[in-house]
Amino acid sequence: MASSQGDAKLERFLQWLQVNGVELRGCKIKYSDSDKGFGIFAANDVSDGVLLVVPLDLAITPMRVLQDPFFGPECRAMFEEGDVDDRFLMVLFLTVERLRKNSSWKPYLDMLPTTFGNPLWFTDDELLDLKGTTLYRATELQKKSLRSLYDDKLKALVDKLLTLDGDSERDVCFEDFLWANSVFWARALNIPLPYSYVFPQVEEKKNCSASNDKSSDVSTNMVNGNAKGCQVDGVDIQVNGVTSVSNQKDTVWVEGLVPGIDFCNHGLKPAATWEVDGTGSITRVPFSMYLLSAGQPLETDEEISISYGNKGNEELLHLYGFVLDGNPDDYLMVHYPVQALQSVSFSDSKAQLLEAQKAEMRCLLPRSLLDHGFFPVGISTNEGSDKGQLNHVCSYSWSGQRKMPSYLNKLVFPESFLTTLRTVAMKEDELFQVSSLLEELVTSGGGRQPSDSEVRAAIWEACGDSGALQMLVDLLTMRMVDLQDGSGTEDSDTNLLKNAGFSESLNLHTGNENDLSEEINGLQPPQSMSRNKWSSIVYRRGQKQLTRLFLKEAEHALQLALDEGN
Ligand SMILES: C[S@@+](CC[C@H](N)C(=O)[O-])C[C@H]1O[C@@H](n2cnc3c(N)ncnc32)[C@H](O)[C@@H]1O
Prior knowledge:
This is Putative methyltransferase chromatin remodeling SET family. By secondary structure, the protein is an alpha+beta fold. Among the domains are: 62-187, Alpha-Beta Complex (set domain protein methyltransferase, domain 1), CATH 3.90.1410.10; 331-464, no CATH class; 476-563, no CATH class. It is 41% helix and 11% strand. Strand 6 (237-239) and strand 7 form a beta hairpin. Residues 35-39, 112-113, 117, 186-187, 262-263, 265-266, 320-322 line the site of S-adenosylmethionine.
């Protein structure tokens, strides 16, 4: 958009922001590059570090849609009956407003990207570059479910609203919905709104307790794929049709888009965070959201990035359509397929045991875990964070028969997943032993049912680690086969990147585990390869690399477990 047409759009957007009370105090919005699009850059110095202030009234939230005189009457009943959720409302709003000729949101919507780098926008050929990865299958499923949501719910509603409006650009099509969906996921924030802002008329009820002061980092992140907005006080409250439950006193978490703030790009070393100012004591604008400098001095024209959270490339590509080469937050997701349980021996008893210990059928293996393993890769960029530390609950002691394994503090795999695998891999005699241990416990406890950690302890006592580790080795080996069947080896990916003019900063992955440390650079795609292809190769190569490294850890642990009779 670096053209005079683009300049005119930006100019109209800046005026629109100003009319709507947005203050660019220490920053400007400008085009960054064809990869990132627009971004926010430092302008003049601000002594209090407040770079940008946006009134919360400008945010696109589910409440806003429900309260809107045009949208509200058409959506409220559907929302209250649970036919559509809060995200649907925002996607609907974006779809319709983009098609309305005289939308008051036009200057904002005209600034938004028209295509995206997430796999939903890949051609069929481009998608093949993801074959064998989790994202390949997820994209196929997501496309299908979006298609039915469009056909079954969205299209008719948009048609109705556009007819009511009587002045639309054209008829809606599936790509309009895809556009709105991608805009939502790439730009939505999980906003901690002041209670009094969301529920002005029920303010006095606000003391109905709040406990669980959840992850403060959510307030500085773009929305997490799993986060659900609109929640207050652990209790469902219906106000204006919005179901709300809170996790922090005086705060209502709501997903939404905040024009202006949503032009911040993601950086590994963010120069700013965003916060909400309920009273106006910081910004002099009550009920506003502001961008706050992280403290380090900003050079004029330096890009002001925020952190979208510690996201791996799978999540970055899926939600935001970009990847970071050498992403220190990259992870591998491993799961035990639930369907496979039906074909193992004693599947019913094992299913019961899995339920009794609230077993997790999947686990995330962040790259940082490798720092603590048998073969550390030495990339400790997450120092101070506990992300790489594992909480091994394996200090179980039952009858004291089973010795604590010597390798315990080097085992990088989450205990919650190992216990699942122990259960699935259990042999007949082990199952019998677990039953007797649990019966013994019930008898001695006067009929009390064993807790989930007691069930886990009994399973560990009976099974040890080798069955679970063998299963993990099998799962990781299968994962590697899928990845390589889909797109060749890690080395062939490295060569593809190298041949595209991307070699200098990359180490060939020929087995030197320390090579990871040299890649944390977030490099941009080279000119000679399409951005989508580059993203896919960087992502899948990272998955192969992590699979290889975690497989090596699992194989070594298995060997030790067998040697120690575990
Ligand atoms: C919240 S928007 C940021 C504003 C956006 N650049 C624009 O032009 O509207 C998020 C999108 O910006 C782009 N983006 C953000 N951070 C990036 C990064 N570090 N590298 C590449 N693209 C990035 C991605 O396209 C992402 O989906």
